[in-house]
Design goal:
20-stranded antiparallel beta sheet; 52 strands; 34% strand; four-stranded antiparallel beta sheet; 24 helices; 909 residues; alpha+beta
Length: 909
Amino acid sequence: MKKLGVGIAILLALAASGYFAFEYFIKSDKVDTWGLVPGNAALVYESNDVIKAWNKLQATGIWRNLSQWDSFSRVENDLLLLDSVAGGQGKLHRFLARNDVLISAHTTSRTEFDFVFYVPIFEEAAASDLSRMLSEFETAGDIRREVRVYQGATITSLFNSAKNQSLAYSLLAGHFVASHTPVLVEDVIRNLNEDFANNFQSKNEPLLNAKSLQEDEGNIYIDIANFQTLMETLLKDGLDPITPSQLLSSSILDILVYTDNIALSGFSFPHQGKESYSMTLVDQSPGTFDVRRYIPNRASKVLHINLSNPSLWKQRLEAYSGSGMDLTSEWQELISDFKFDVHSYYSALGGELAYVTLESLRPELPEKLLLLETENISRALKQLDDLAAAASTDTVYYERFADNTIKQIQIDGLPRKIFGQPFPDFQTSFYTEVDQYIAISNSIETLKRLISDYDQENTWGKSLQQSDFIDNSVSDANLSLYINIPRSWSIFMNRAEPGWRSLLTSKSGVLKRFGMIAVQMSYVNNQFYTGVVITHDDEESARATGGFTNLVSVALDTVARTKPWVVRNHVTNAFEMLVQDMANNLYLIAENGEVIWKDSVGTEINFEITQIDFFRNGKLQYFFATDSTLFCIDRNGDNVEGYPRKLEFPIHHMRIIDYDQSRRYRLMVSDVSGNAYMYDMAGNLLDGWNPKSLGGRLAEAPKHFRVRGRDFIVAIQEDGIIHVINRRGETLPGFPINLNANSPNPVFVDVGSNISNTSLTTVTEDGEIVEFNLDGVITDRNQLFKPDANTRFGMAVERSAKTYVIVQVDQNRISILDNQGKLMTEKDYLDAGNFQVQFYSLALGRQLVIVTDPIQQFSYIYNEVGTLVNGQPLSSAFPVAILYSEARRQYKIYSTFGNKVTISTAPAD
């Protein structure tokens, strides 16, 4: 982009030359400008008033955002300077307004691309303006000039050392042709001398026949194959889930720039023959995007296909040759090996297929999901059940989760074998039903999260921001690609070429303001109507909400005793908060600050408040504990029958367990001696837990996780002895294991697709990262640098248990390290031994580390690059609760300080 901006700005200015052969130039043979563009151009921009388009862009929030990038801000400065040097009074504007300007983009190396500018000088008035401007510029600046001849044409290279700018140009057939890369000017000369044998025009004849300038900001003509090569300079592994060249041959798009988005529309043309995937959608009627109801908000990319006749699509897939995959053979194998009737399965499909890539904390292994609408869900599931049975050497693996059954089909590459490219090549497939859709993934955990997201209405269909975008920007289509840029960022950066990665990282805040991209195609008369929308959040409007802005501040009767707990109102789905004061009053407070009720608990709440569905009827209650008493109250503040319940020992740790999201809860508690007890919600002790004696004080409450339907409970003692136990209280073979080091820290569990690839990690007090498996074998030990004998290490697991950070304490200094031991941030505190650290991994790749200093009563909120949010701490006596608003790009922070509980906001950028 730097080259494009500087090129526009100095296109004519640096071309100043007292040796401009004016008479020769205007009398030479002239050709159509399009004939000069070489065949290796990836795209060509055309405008009949480039200055008008430029001025309109400058007035938008898009430009206010981009102008923070030095490469873009120079464009405006250089254009103003150029007009001034050329004599002012809008001479540059008048000159360019007389001409249709072309700008072509070309790949110049594996990691680079550049532009060529074409300005026709056919009219004598235009040539005279150019001559006068160049003459006036000749005396300005420090210009060094080099001249050489290439295939009979003169190439002049100009250098402005003061501005570190350069340009190569040639005067060809009535045109001024220029580029920062001289070899691209040579390409134009070769094209001219070879009588345009292989130029952009001849390669993309349908585009040029369709071209027509409208009252907009110009047109873009795209050679899809060359465009794909250009994009691969940025992404080392190319584009997915389907490459542009698999879809189309070329496109022409009009450009319209608005305050908060860019819209392109026009037509795209498939390859001749059967090489375009888009041709499989011929004669399919465009349809709606109803599957959005099930797409999780954490989706980073969605490929959506809409069918009016699935059986016809199957026929065209058989003929499609662009992927190099013989689908007919794959189908025959499924029929012969597993008796799976592929043809019948297509007839059971409904109108929608969505291939979803999800935002992931491990960008090298993104979660993927396939959603298939069915005409008959029972029939479609029966076919998959029969296939799973035929493919299994034993009984079919299945697992219950919430009200769903998840099953496994042990066939390598199943979705691709059925539907071909671009569908995923899963090594194994898990599937379940969600209403009339079948969901397929290679990870059972992904399906569990899908079910939870749908139940909690955390989907595109329920997101106000996503719904607004879809309703206002998206039309019926045959094929659509949606990309959420911020949520794709970590995956994108993982695949970016090293040469681009550092630049993109430094400008991530600018680029992430381009929120959604939607590309849609609909078949019309042997071509595809194509629409592209790119949304943008205005930096200026975002800054208007900056600072810690108090939304609500509620006075309690006395000083707050606890942090605020954010809970859901099961009636309205709104957020509310619970907090306790020093008089042991528990308050339920609405988002608007209204105290819904206040009631005395009688003693201090010592553990987390957890919302549960005690009666399994969709109504939520609050479960918590004091030193030795269990409470369960409803949203009106009334006790659930059977509670409160007094235990015979002081509680040291407590955790609610729901094995399969069936709401058949279990309560795990432990005492200071390491005895673990498990109760059902009626208060009955369960076999094997009456108690389970672990032999020492625990570092955290025993933690449950599930792998392939098997339940495991891990418990770590502060002296470094680790137990893994099944739900019956039986210790697994190989356990307990002894780390031979104190470890008063949690255990992080990385649940894999099976037992063998599930790993557990903890950090010892001395800074050793220890990884072990479910066989009780320590697989890795890595000692972190320990600068002092008194240095000690802690661990903060992210609230959804997907990753963790390491906390290093040196006297009064706290350093936060990522899970690879890389420093994120560090700061000195008055009492580093009494701090509390929280770790949030929120949407759009945003991570927050919060360090709360109870002595000074400040919470320091750091973002993923270690910068203090708003440059200042937040007054808070206890750990905070944080929610993220994707629509406003804002953090909502719940905190307690003195006798006040406060809801405040802060900008996320």
